[in-house]
Amino acid sequence: MTRQRRFENLALTAITLLAGLIWIFPLYWAFVTSIRSENRVVSEGAGLFPDEFNLSSYVDALFNTSLIDWYINSIGTSVIITAVVLLTGMMCAYALSQMQFPGRRLLYGIVLASFMVPAQALVVPQFVLMNDLDLINRWGGIILPQLVVPVVIIVYKQFFDAVPKEMKEAVVLDGGGDYTLLFKVYLPLNWGITTALGIITFIMSWNAFLWPFLVITTEDMMTIPVGITQVNDAFGVAYARIMSVALLAAAPVVIAYLIFQKRVTEAVMISSGVKG
Amino acid sequence: MAMIRNRSRHRLVAYSLILPFVAIFALVFAYPVIEVVRMSFTDAPLIGGGDWVGFDNYARLLSDKLFYKSLVNNGYFVLLTVIPTTVIALVIALAVNRLSGRMQALALVLFFMPYVLPVSVVTQIWAWMLDFQFGILQPVIEFFTGKPVPVFKNPFWVMPAVAVVTIWWTNGFNVLLFLAGLRNIPGELYEAAKLDGATRRQLFFKVTWPLLWPVTALVLTLQLILQLKIFDQVYLLSEGGPFNSSYVLLLMVYREAFQLNHGGYAAAISLVLFLIIVVISVLQFQILRIGGKDK
Fold first, then answer.
1. In whole angstroms, what is the distance from residue A47 CA to residue A32 CA?
2. What is the pLDDT of residues A67-122, one digit of tens each?
3. Does residue A74 sit in the same domain as residue A39?
4. Does residue B51 sit within a domain?
5. How far apart are CA A7 and CA B138, in angstroms?
6. Closest residue of A to B91, CA-based?
7. Cβ-based contacts of B126 with chain A (< 8 Å)
8. Which CATH number covers residue B230?
């Protein structure tokens, strides 16, 4: 590599990383704000750098709001949604990929078509349905409409299609049925994609706003994204506290993302069809 | 005989495998699709039956000024977000793609991070950054306009401001798609083009851009559909105001159904949004595919 090329690469790296740091600045600023006192936040000379380490707004956020309830609701509903979506998705995809039955092509067509239907256009009848089922203000009401994630089936089917047929034979010779095949062969072979889809589904349901916002009206049943909007009303203009609550709300997904970065990247690429 | 029994057993197993998904799908997806159509022809409140009113809701929609306002705002928001976010994401992906190993991973984390945040966290942070009195971005706005602007309370600024917030939040997703597309381009193509003496410009326009077109088309389509469905950010940042200058279709659905108790009318609006999205996604997909073939 010539000296000029090396310098160019170095400059490009520096510029890109600098742009990245500017891009992430809002999060940094939220953090700096959250560790200041309310007075400091709105005072004239407050600079760009952390000059106080005041955790009182975090204490406030944890103990003077229903944040703990919201955490429990968000974790509970997101875990259940993720588990059910993965399980029903892999079962359905296995049947579509490996079995013959009347209605198979129709079912796959419906799964593909449902991709185009915006779930937001269904909130009115879904709300009526949840009311009929007496699920307003309950976990069930938050969970049920979020259980249809067609892309999980489409991705699983792709991966199951690609499993070599020889993998089946040993199990079939031993008299194993399709359930054995799915859970003892196909699933273990596809742990990678299962984790990736699981993380994406979890993040999606953790971040869901519109539906939980509609189906929950009591504060103690709210999920994190809906609950934290209440803090504004309760605190008035108290930005240190609002930022602390926002950062506490974001922490689980941010940590999950940092741990599973590669998987998240992979999942986004695969589920949008640009990488198979 | 054994064959037949075997086959029906096979089918039974297959049906048992699809049953959980199909049952949930029928209950919370297929049934609501039918219901939203049926409700749109009634004068039902949100909860409780209503009477059949034929096309009354649709007639009312055509004479509802707020409906047109919302349609226009939806279109305006699409203009403000779709192409800008595609261009920005492409530029970032090209830059990130040239970094090596760890630096690339780090840059990707920085650009992708906002995408994993809940929408209300995003809006809270930006509402603070753009706060009229204390917002850290007000000096920047002042630099361009000469005075601080309460962006979410100003009819001119509200939509561009919501667009900026939206692009910041969702751009990482598009960066990832472009990056995947760039990684799919075989390196030999560049080597061959370089041997032929291609300049960097030529490399981009003759190799990268045409081969990246399917991904670009995908990003454009996904963004168009996504941005038509905008609700969260507008509701949280401006509630459709001021003077309905950021009112959009889903906000109208929400108001009519959940605040004014007009279930039937809200269903009609939902159905219009539904149809717009289906038609546009089919159309745009076709157009982009043809565009891709020409190149």
1. 10
2. 999 999 999 999 999 999 999 999 999 999 999 999 999 999 999 888 778 889 99
3. no
4. no
5. 37
6. A16
7. 26
8. 1.10.3720.10
Residue B106 included in any domain: yes
A139 and A237 inside one domain? yes
Query: Residue B176 is nearest to which of A91, A102, A269, comparing CB atoms?
Result: A269
B41, B94, B125, best to mutate vs chain A, most A CBs in 10 Å: B125
The answer as to whether B188 is a domain residue is: yes
| Closest Cα in chain A to B118 | A207
Contacts of B215 in chain A (CB under 8 A): 274
Provide DSSP, A175-222: T--HHHIIIIIIHHHTHHHHHHHHHHHHHHHHH--HHHHHH--SGGG-
Which residue in B has a C-alpha nearest to residue A258's C-alpha? B109
CB–CB contacts below 8 A, A to B: 265
**ipTM reported for the complex, 2 dp:** 0.90
Q: Is A140 among the domain residues?
A: yes
Q: What is chain B's pLDDT, residue by residue, as a tens digit (295 residues)?
A: 556 678 888 999 999 999 999 999 999 999 999 999 999 999 989 888 888 888 899 999 999 999 999 999 999 999 999 999 999 999 999 999 988 888 999 999 999 999 999 999 999 999 999 988 888 898 888 888 888 889 898 899 999 999 999 999 999 999 999 999 998 888 888 888 888 888 888 888 888 888 898 889 889 888 988 899 999 999 999 988 788 888 999 999 999 999 999 999 999 999 999 999 888 877 766 766 665 554 3
**CB–CB contact A124 B106 (8 Å):** no
Beta-carbon separation of B168 and A26 below 8 A: yes
- Cα separation, A22 vs A68, whole angstroms: 32
Give the count of domains, chain A.
2
Q: Which of B106, B180, B254 sits opposite A275 (nearest CB)?
A: B180
Nearest alpha carbon to residue B123 among B243, B219, B239, B248: B239
Give how far Cα B15 sits from Cα of A91, A100, A182, A257, B8, Å: 10, 10, 14, 36, 10
Contact B152, B161 (CB under 8 A): yes
A225 contact residues in B (CB cutoff 8 A): 118-121
